[in-house]
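Write out this protein's structure.
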Amino acid sequence: MIPTDWKYLYKIARGGSPHTTNMLYTPMVNPEETVMCLIYDETHEYQKDNSELTKDLVDFFFEREVKYLETFQSYKWAPKLLDIDYVSRTIFTEFYPNTINRILLTPDRNLDLEYPNWKNQIFSTLKDIDQAGYYKMALYPHCFFFDKHSQLKTIDFYSCVEKDNCLIPRSKLEGLIGGDSTGRFDNATIDGNVDFEIFFKTTLQTHLAQRWPDNPFPDFYKRLYD
C-alpha cells in the first residue's frame, strides 16, 4: 500500500498549470521526491478522464514497463528499479524532481546554463537504445530528469519497442490513442498493425518540434540514420 503522505506527480503544462503525465499509469512520489511509484490501475482517480482505458490495455503496458526497465538496468540513464508488486501492478523506481519539463517551465531557470550537455546526454541515450535494438517513443521533456550528479535519466519504458518486432496490432492500442496523436498512428498503421519504426522516426523528425526549445531531435535522427 502506498503511504498516505505520497503525492501525485504532475507535469507542468504551458501556462503553468499542473497536468497528468501520461494516459496509462498513476505516478506518485514520496515526500523526499527520491522514489516514484508507477501504479498501473485503470480505475485510479488520476486516470478519471481516460474513459477508454481497459484492464487488458493496462496489463499489456505494465508488462512492457517491467520488461524494458529490467532490460536497460545496466545503463546509467535508466532509473534504478527498486521493487515490483505484480499483484497490484505497482513499480517503484528511483526519482529526482528535476525534470526537464520543470526546468523549462519554471521562470528564471535555464536548461542550457544548468545542464549545458543535456543534448549530448539525450543523444547518447537514444544511441544506446538504438544500438541495443530498440526504439523508445516517450521523449517529451517530462520523460527526462537529472539526478544529483547531473546524470540524465529517462522514464516511461512501456513505450519501448524491439526493432525486430515493431509491429503491434492497432486493436491492442486504441484506448491509448488520444485525439492529438491519431494522425501519427494513422500514418504508421499498415494492414491493421502499427509499424513503430515509422512511428518512431516520425516522432524524431516532426512530432517533438512544439515540445522542445531549439528542437534537437531532427538532428538526432540524421546522426542516427543518415
